[in-house]
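so the lab meeting is tmrw and i was supposed to have these ready like two days ago... anyway. pasting both below. for each one the top line is the aa sequence and the line under it is the structure tokens. i havent really looked at them closely yet so no promises
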Amino acid sequence: MIASSRARAALLLLAICMVAMVVGWLVNRLEIEWLLAVVLGAIAVGFVFYDFRVGAVCLTILLPWSWSPILPQAYGFNIINFLMFASVASILLSRSAGKRKVVWLPREVVWCYLLPFLAAVLIAWPYLPIGQMNFPPRPNYPDALFAPVTFLKIKVIKPMFFVVFALILANAIRESKKPEWLLLPFGISAMIPALAIIGEVMSGVDVSDRKHFLSGLGLQVNEYGTLLALAAGPLLFICVGSSARLIRLAAGCAFAIVSAGLVLTASRGAVVAYLVIVAIWLLRRRKLSDLVLGVAAAAVLAAFIPEQVQDRLVMGLDDVGATSSRNTDDPLTKGRVAVWSALAPDFFDSPIYGKGLSSTAWNTAVTAGRVWVGHPHNMYLSIVLDLGVLGAAALLFLYYRYGRSMYRLSTEPTLSPLLRDYFAGAFASFIAMLFFAMTGGYYTPHVEQTFLWFSLGCCYAYWGLAQIPRESAPGKPFGLGVRRMVKLHSPKVGAQR
């Protein structure tokens, strides 16, 4: 019986290999890129309909590469699209059959995120012709970015895929008896881009060429820094947490690889975010041995950093005076201060509800030709320009709820130690992202935020649990590692001891 089952498995594996070889030959011979996507998508759909958690695992690994030339980018025939729609269909079919209860988005996300986002799309619509005029098609980008159809695809539909991914993951976690296993593809997905970056640097690429360094992988170099920073927090807290030794060892190896990849991006914002993560870890642990370990690890990392990366990280620190609101090419901020000064006055044109999604494209300074940027390189400025005061207040409130939920789940006794460690690291990475956002980042979903949406999916799975206030035990760390004050009452005079 065992022999026959092994024989069937071997024959199935052989058949899969033969089909893969035939498909690969056809793709190479006929140069039909979509054929590979169709075949792979069909196979993936079959597995996903059998168990939608397969879709959650595949999306976790593939989403960081969704804009990369490594994956087929044909419209419609896209492996990401196949996995996304098949997973959602599988969940809904199971619900209609009464097999499971679906986890939906928390109402705070609907009211404070989706509603302002959709309002920003409607407000932006009349401005799209100005965006088309300011950003016409280019040789590398033949489609006009702000043409209505392209705008909907790139600025609305694709970002919403990450929200759907978080929902799929939330349902996968609630459906699993051991949701900790879903952290395995998270670790693998974090290491792959880090290893790719390490390989690029070892091949001798010019780190100082910020426009082309890592561009062949699909994202801009600072975006890869954000991606790895969002993965570094959970890996750090897991590798020094209270899980099993093998898990901590695996997380430690992944954290070392991710740390090396992050530093080699030479992204100063990402390095600052990394330091924020380490600082939160030290504050929550409050052990001298951890401080010594952190200093030693930093010394080792600094010793092996290539010289060109070191030069890039300290660039402009000796010429801070060159940074001004008129200098668009200062070495420290690369003109960010000048860009902020030029874009900010548009806030007063529509301070209540903003000028719509991606309003930088029709900003007065961009239209007049004083600056030419598609993003203000400051997430908070982008929020107030696009959404106004009302949208900014809603979004900041939601960020507060996200941070509070992650922190509460990191101390929730009903969760396993591994999940508590994960949420502690996710909280640290989320706070670090808010620091990084002062010089870059997006408030709308983006590829670099894949691991943030992974964390949010985990939060959505336990959202109800995270909203229950729970008193910290006396003498236990709370907040960022500060101990609760215990008031000592001295006995009254004449009272019995």
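ok protien two:
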Amino acid sequence: MSFSRWLPALDRVPDLCPSLLYPEPKVVFAKEQLARSEVKTEAGASATLSCEVAQAQTEVTWYKDGKKLSQSSQVRVEASGCRWQLVVQQAGKADAGEYSCEAGGQKVSFHLDVTEPKAVFAKGQPTHSEVKAQAGASATLSCEVAQAQTEVTWYKDGKKLSQNSQVRVEASGCRRQLVLQQAGKADAGDYSCEAGGQRVSFHLDVTEPKVVFAKEQLARSEVKAEMGASATLSCEVAQAQTEVTWYKDGKKLSQSSQVRVEASGCRRQLVVQQAGKEDAGEYNCEAGGQRVSFRLDVTGGCCWGW
């Protein structure tokens, strides 16, 4: 049998049916993206590799240095419509390398470079500090940034802190401070000062204050004195060496010809001589963030008419 009569027809096959002999591969990835991308991230930050498929139902597989990646606490795979993302959380030097997003024999490639972060905080300080404060006293958490213009955010137990009457945020040059006024047990916990993905952390322990005043006395007393007579306000400290400060209506008192401060053993006294109406008011004896209070009432006084 001769096949010569079929040869003209066979010669025309490539012209008539090129798609049968050389089919075009199905497009898996959207065409408007780069086939290879360079991605940079700082150590400790997240890195996101992103590609787009042509059909929303397409499933992709991610690889690093030729090895298939599985989702974990460190690596998260996300899909939304036609967009696929690989999120490498808290990237480290070990995460640098070649990545690919593959489906249907096609791929989109990435090179991830993980660099050392720019220093935000001054290097001479500890990254974690233990701070102790007595209940009722102020607690100051302090750190130093490398650049004076750096803005920081303070957190307690992972929650952002805002300035208020209890919490004061201070900045002076490169120093950043968080001041907790009249700290209580509820203020104990873990704090952090954060900027640029970096942090300095603190653990604050709030302890019961050391007893300053002897326990067998009233925390507040009413004292009466007649006009022109002396008035004595008296309290007792727990330790003889304790120094106290006296206040009237919130203002510190100094010894004078009118006011005498006395100390004998554990006893502390304020003597107001020749008391007048202007000496009436609220008095405090204070030490170590604690106080004993007094209310002085000056009575009497006669107006003589002739």
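from a quick look at the 2nd one: The two ends are 163 Å apart (CA to CA). The chain has three domains: 13-115, 128-207, 220-299. will dig more after coffe
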